[in-house]
Amino acid sequence: MQASSLKKEIVTFLGVMLCCILWGSAFPGIKIGYSLWNIAADDTWRIIRFAGIRFFLAGILVILIGSLMKKKFLFPKKNEWGKILFLSLFQTIGQYVFFYVGLAHTTGVNSAIVDSLTAFFAIIIACFFFRTEHLTVRKILGCILGLSGIILINISSEGFSFHPLGDGLIALSALCYGVSSNMIKKYAVNYDTVLFSGFQFALGGLIMTIIGQTGISIFEAPSPEYQEISYLPAVGILLYLALVSSVAYTLWGILLRTNDVSKISIFGFMNPIIGVILSAILLKETSVLGIKYFLALLLISTGIVIVNLKFPNPKEKT
User: Fold this and answer.
1) Structural domain tally of the chain?
2) Residue 79 main-chain phi, psi, to 5 deg
3) I need a surface site. Which of 2, 166, 173, 248 has the fewest CB within 10 A?
4) What is the extent of the structural domain holding 101?
5) Residue 38, φ and ψ in degrees, nearest 5
């Protein structure tokens, strides 16, 4: 392999890993946010509003950073708004309404592993629906191993246990991601991924905030929800989560533009490893860990290696 190719591979790997670390920290970060803002598991409308504010702020950050980098204010053209809205329906609204509500009904450790279905869905959708890639034996085997790890964590002494309101919604969130990652790959050919990322976050976040606030006003009785909130850490975690999205998704979009969807998306299997570790530490969920979680993470990690394994070309100079 030539030095320039090796350098590109290293830069790509470091970029992907930074995204995974940021996303992995979001699992415990969101749970901590619920606690700091006094949001209970059944406060669905407040959960949607919390998510909406986060992504609206993330969108503003992306737009500001992108505008500074390009030394001009980023603003969509007339023919781009429809595509941005369509992307937002999957990448922000669909993915994160399901994710935030699902996370409220399961552990950070469990959700981190179920969410690794994102890589599985992204590859399947790329191969069968968008037809931008070919499904190879390596990709099939890698997906099977990753999926096996997810199934393993849902097996208990009582049998297979899959909770629709928790694990099920996290899985639907992963499906939305699978669609959106392929849409980003498609749009990146002709459009500015930073502009699309920023405005789809801001638009989706605004819609979610309005939906959440409307739901609170209509379906919930007035309550002193903010009386006992410590605002410095509460606002701090919200800003951190917004930063996670703005940095990770912008970088992820850039990486998808220059690489195959499967090559990048398969690293999504690293999210559960990082998410499990951080959830266990920050949320004190070490009691739920056991040998099956270790085996599940091992299966997922092996799937990553197999999908990205490349056999050297005998004619290629090393």
Assistant:
1) 1
2) -80, 0
3) 2
4) 3-308
5) 55, 45
